[in-house]
């Protein structure tokens, strides 16, 4: 049975798990309706969910609210179909007004950090797209603004979405209009393509054809998924990625948020991803109530009982703490290096060569914002070889860094000299009289 941890308890096991998740390299997230409740969208199975609302409003027609999402029941009569279209339009308006919550922003943050392999959602509200994730939708027209290939998609809706309507007769797809008006398309409307074909036949004196009704592109109970093969291809690709050799030493995490795992397809998805690479992949389910029993042994490693948004905040706090520690460490090392270099410059160690002292002095540049009493000037002399070349064809054996060059001071041929002592700008003029033919680089 998976190890159960409560988010409200401050245990060492929970702290260690949060640190391990925060340091993971790759994430796959599977979400359910529980992450959208705080966004104003009711779930389906709770006491205040959509199933319960439908049963209270239409108990004389359906024995359970679930029946209104069952394909074998909805289209049995025009009355139940009309109720289905009404509830779908109402749910579409709720999805339009809703805004992404903390969990959606957490998933987006994973994507921004380059750690999100894929997000699979059972939700049809489209909040992943509003959060800024690229969403794969097979009904989006190729080349349009909403089209995203499955390879580039960050989020995959397992049960369809409310973005489009599809004709039940000719399978033409249209955008689900957010507001009623001229040219708006709503659930239950007649298909414009079917009507156009029928009118064209009537204009030529032929009999008219029936027109189909538009329904949202969501997958109902007791009906095959129209794009199950495409989703299976995406899942297989992600499972192979989790099991790839380059990830053998990195920690991969499968996060399951806000779902009871009662839908068979979602159960199979979690099992395939969790067992793709059991050596370096940990699977964590976060939900308000216990979900996993003995049947999930070897699949789910940890079951965290608590609010999903609180879990996401803990991970984000751990990320922030790691960032602060990293910045503090870099600043501390920079300050220590500067302090040590300055001490060596003032009191050079015995037996230190002139070249080593000069190198330390050039590196001892104060950090930005550090006050200094005066600007130190160091002279770096470049070797000139004129043994077999004329003075006009002289070349530098060693080129200086990109610093101002002064060529008005000379030095004898085949002689190498490096002046490392601390000098002021006034000393340079005096040096030119004694050392002809040399290039001097001034480093401040």
TrEMBL record:
UniProt keyword Zinc present: yes
Compositional bias ranges of the Basic and acidic residues kind: 334-345
Active site per UniProt: 159
GO cellular component: nucleus
Metal-binding recorded as keyword: yes
Residues annotated to bind Zn(2+): 167, 170, 191, 194
Residue numbers spanned by region Disordered: 334-373
Pfam families associated with the record: SIR2
Molecular function GO labels: histone deacetylase activity, NAD-dependent; lyase activity; metal ion binding; NAD+ binding
Enzyme class of the recorded protein, top EC level: lyase
Keywords: Lyase, Metal-binding, NAD, Transferase, Zinc
EC number: 4.4.1.36
InterPro entries noted in UniProt: DHS-like_NAD/FAD-binding_dom, NAD-dep_sirtuin_deacylases, Sirtuin, Sirtuin_cat_small_dom_sf, Ssirtuin_cat_dom
Residue span, Deacetylase sirtuin-type domain: 4-329
Entry-linked PANTHER family: NAD-DEPENDENT HISTONE DEACETYLASE HST3, NAD-DEPENDENT PROTEIN DEACYLASE SIRTUIN-5, MITOCHONDRIAL-RELATED
Family per similarity comment: Belongs to the sirtuin family. Class I subfamily.
Descriptive protein name: NAD-dependent deacetylase hst3
Species: Coemansia erecta
């Amino acid at each position: 049975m998976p190890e159960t941890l409560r988010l409200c308890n401050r245990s060492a096991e929970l702290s260690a798990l949060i640190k391990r998740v925060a340091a993971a390299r790759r994430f796959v997230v599977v979400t359910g309706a529980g992450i959208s409740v705080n966004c104003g969208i009711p779930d389906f199975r709770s006491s205040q969910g959509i199933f319960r609302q439908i049963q209270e409003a239409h108990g004389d027609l359906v024995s359970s609210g679930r029946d209104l999402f069952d394909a074998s029941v909805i289209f049995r009569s025009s009355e139940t179909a009309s109720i289905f279209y009404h509830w779908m339009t109402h749910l579409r308006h709720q999805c339009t007004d809703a805004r992404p919550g903390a969990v959606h922003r957490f998933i987006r943050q994973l994507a921004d950090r380059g750690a999100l392999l894929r997000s699979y959602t059972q939700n049809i509200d489209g909040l992943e797209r509003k959060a800024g994730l690229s969403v794969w939708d097979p009904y989006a027209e190729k080349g349009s603004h909403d089209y995203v290939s499955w390879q580039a998609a960050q989020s995959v809706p397992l049960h369809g979405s409310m973005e489009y309507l599809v004709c039940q007769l000719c399978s033409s797809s249209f955008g689900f209009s957010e507001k009623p008006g001229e040219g708006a398309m709503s659930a239950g409307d007649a298909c414009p393509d079917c009507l156009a074909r029928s009118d064209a036949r009537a204009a030529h004196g032929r009999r008219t054809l029936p027109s189909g009704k538009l329904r949202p592109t969501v997958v109902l109970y007791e009906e095959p998924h129209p794009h199950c093969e495409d989703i299976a291809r995406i899942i297989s690709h992600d499972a192979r990625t989790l099991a790839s050799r380059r990830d053998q030493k990195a920690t991969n995490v499968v996060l399951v948020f806000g779902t009871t795992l009662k839908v068979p397809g979602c159960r199979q998805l979690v099992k395939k991803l969790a067992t793709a690479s059991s050596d370096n992949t940990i699977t964590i389910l976060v939900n308000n109530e216990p979900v996993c029993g003995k049947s999930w042994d070897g699949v789910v490693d940890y079951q965290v009982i608590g609010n999903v948004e609180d879990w996401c905040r803990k991970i984000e706090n751990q990320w922030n703490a790691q960032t602060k520690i990293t910045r503090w460490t870099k600043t501390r090392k920079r300050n220590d290096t500067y302090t040590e270099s300055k001490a060596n410059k003032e009191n050079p160690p015995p037996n230190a060569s002139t070249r080593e002292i000069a190198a330390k002095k050039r590196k001892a540049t104060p950090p930005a914002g550090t006050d200094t009493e005066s600007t130190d000037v160091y002279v770096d002399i470049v070797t000139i070889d004129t043994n077999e070349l004329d003075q006009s064809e002289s070349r530098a054996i060693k080129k200086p860094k990109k610093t101002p060059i002064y060529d008005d001071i000379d030095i004898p041929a085949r002689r190498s000299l490096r002046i490392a002592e601390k000098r002021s700008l006034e000393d340079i003029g005096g040096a030119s009289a004694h050392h002809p033919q040399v290039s001097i680089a001034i480093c401040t």
